[in-house]
Amino acid sequence: MPVSFPAAGRWIAGSGPTLQTINPATGALTAELGTPTDTEVAVTCEAARQAAQHPAWRRMKPHQRAALLHRIADELARSGETLAQLQMVENGKSLKECRAQAASAAATFRYYAAVCETIEAATPPSRGEYVNFTLHQPYGVVAAITPWNSPLTMEAQKVAPALAAGNAVILKPSEITTLPALELARICERAGLPAGLLSVLPGHGRDVGAALINHSAIGMISFTGGTATGRMIAETAARRLIPAALELGGKSPHIIFADADLDAACASVLDGIFEGMGQSCVAGSRLFVQRGVHDAVIERLRVAAQTLRIGPPEAAETQLGPLASMAHRDRVESYVALARSEGGRIVAGGSRPDGLDCERGAYYLPTIIAGLSNAARVCREEIFGPVLCVIPFDDEADLVRQANDTVYGLACGIWSQDFRRAWRMAEAIEAGTVWINTYKQLSIAAPFGGFKESGLGREKGLTGLRLYQQVKSIYVATA
Ligand code: TXE
Fold first, then answer.
1. How far apart are CA 344 and CA 336, in angstroms?
2. In 16-79, where does DSSP find H-type helix?
3. Is 449 a domain residue?
4. Do residue 98 and residue 215 come from a single domain?
5. Residue whose CA is closest, atom 12 of ligand 1?
6. Is 247 known to be catalytic?
């Protein structure tokens, strides 16, 4: 029997084709999952529309909604180990990282519980004989579509604020990682979320995802994934005239000026690209190093990269597990071959590791490439793997020109002891998040999203709640 999923308030096996998920560390089958047909997708959307309109949900007081979100957070915290294991056996991230992500999912629900209870609306100054109020109301049903690299955190980042904002949610997880979403739904059920407010529809994007976002009940789409898919989703949203929040890819510059603390900078560069095997939208994949320290930085990185421990994700000493799938490793390998053909010099990695079963496990060595310009394809396209390209720069003007010469604009890291310079660069570089003398520091309280082709809209923070609401102005006559 394939694993069932919650649709329209009950768990069903689905009449669509069965979906398999694979453990990328071993090649073994992880789960066989039922998927919905188009009709079952439609039934789920209609049920979500009704659940969203139910007076008990629409009129629920903010402090009651907050209490519910706190109960979900409590259940998430209790189930942290289960959630971590479920993500690990589907995307191969180290158990340590999966545990941290499960903890962060619980914290996200707590944050939105607090936001829900404390956020206020405006009463704009009156320009006549009336009082003006601003109401923020839910869209109704939100379609949340998530990728495979960090389902635990991303699904919480969409579901928690969308529920806090008063919507029903239909979550379409990646076909590579479905189990964490199903567990989240079980947790929400145990915590007392009324039936039909969170459905999870497993399956491929091209069929289940497309049927979902084309249904008339969907009032808003929240998507995280690749830029090409994001563009297609934006086209559907434009045709339907509904809003779409898009968190897309990146090719983020990590920058080292000659005056930087090189020990700290190099450690941060390695974490910034290799943590999670580079399968992170904010991975610092282009390293710009000021010419005076370029060769010294490369030598430090070469030595340090060789000490990274790659191995089975469940092992306590493992820092880097496999890539999320064999197909993705093929893609990463083809990019490294391309870098070689473009004249790149492989400083570290560039192959599969010895001593691990690479026939069954999607392992790949952390790879550093030098000798290419920012114009090379591997410096322009998102590889989404453990591949760092090192590029020299001369001065601030040269740096800003090169760093901004990309279609992406998600994140950026700047290392310099000169704070004024770091600030100038932070203002000049086109990115939704900039880190100064740190990298990948993320807070649920700070808005997150991309400039340019890295996305539209901002998740997290107070903005992340407003993303799931529409504004209504009410005028009350006083004369
Ligand atoms: O992502 P997709 P893929 C980048 C990264 C990666 C590339 C492709 O470069 O190598 O994208 O990854 C659903 N209608 N990122 O193919 O296609 C799909 O089922 C509705 C960056 O895995 O974007 C899944 O649930 N839904 C990134 C989700 O979209 C559709 C994270 C993401 O899949 C659909 C992941 C459709 N027509 C990949 N087609 C980041 N920003 O963190 C697909 N989907």
1. 9
2. 38-53, 55-58, 62-78
3. no
4. yes
5. 226
6. yes
User: Tell me, what CATH number does 278's domain have?
Assistant: 3.40.309.10
Region 446-473: what's the mean pLDDT?
98
119 CA to centre of ligand 1 in angstroms: 32
- The reply to whether 130 and 32 lie within a common domain is yes
Q: Look at residue 36 in the predicted model and tell me its pLDDT.
A: 98
Catalytic residue among 45, 266, 281, 389: 281
Q: Is the CB of 384 under 6 A from ligand 1?
A: yes
Judged against a pLDDT cut of 90, whether residue 1 lies above it is answered with no
Residue 172 falls inside a structural domain: yes
The C-alpha angle 38, 41, 46, rounded to 5 degrees, equals: 125
In terms of domains, do 341 and 430 share one?
yes
Same domain, 241 and 301: no
How far does residue 225's CA lie from ligand 1's centre (Å)? 4
What CATH code is carried by the domain that includes residue 111? 3.40.605.10
In total, how many domains does the chain have?
2
| 448 belongs to a structural domain | no
State the distance from the centre of ligand 1 to the C-alpha of 60, rounded, in angstroms.
Answer: 34
In the Cβ-directed half-sphere of 104, how many Cα atoms lie within 13 Å? 19
pLDDT at residue 75 is higher than 90: yes
* Residue 203 CA, ligand 1 centroid: distance in Å: 13
* Catalytic pick among 97, 247, 430, 459: 247
Based on the domain organization, do 310 and 238 belong to the same domain? no
The predicted structure's pLDDT at residue 245: 98
Are 176 and 288 contained in the same domain? no
Question: Does residue 225 have its Cβ closer than 6 Å to ligand 1?
Answer: yes
Per-residue pLDDT tens digits for 17-47: 999 999 999 999 999 999 999 999 999 999 9
Q: Is 147 in the pocket of ligand 1 (CB under 6 A)?
A: yes
Pairing, β 130-138 against β 469-477: antiparallel
Tens digits of residue pLDDT in 127-167: 999 999 999 999 999 999 999 999 999 999 999 999 999 99
With respect to residue 308, please indicate whether it lies within any of the assigned structural domains: yes
Predicted local confidence at residue 147, as pLDDT: 98
Report how far apart, in Å, the C-alpha atoms of 130 and of each of 127, 133, 306, 473, 475 are: 8, 10, 69, 12, 6
Q: Order of strands, edge to edge, in the sheet holding 367-370?
A: 345-348, 367-370, 387-393, 286-290, 253-256, 411-415, 433-436
Whether 316 has a pLDDT exceeding 90, the answer reads: yes
219 and 360 within one domain: no
Domain with 333 in it: 253-443
Same domain membership, residue 332 and residue 234: no
210 C-beta closer than 6 A to ligand 1: yes
How far is the C-alpha of 48 from the C-alpha of 90, rounded, in Å?
Answer: 28
C-beta 252 within 6 A of ligand 1:
no
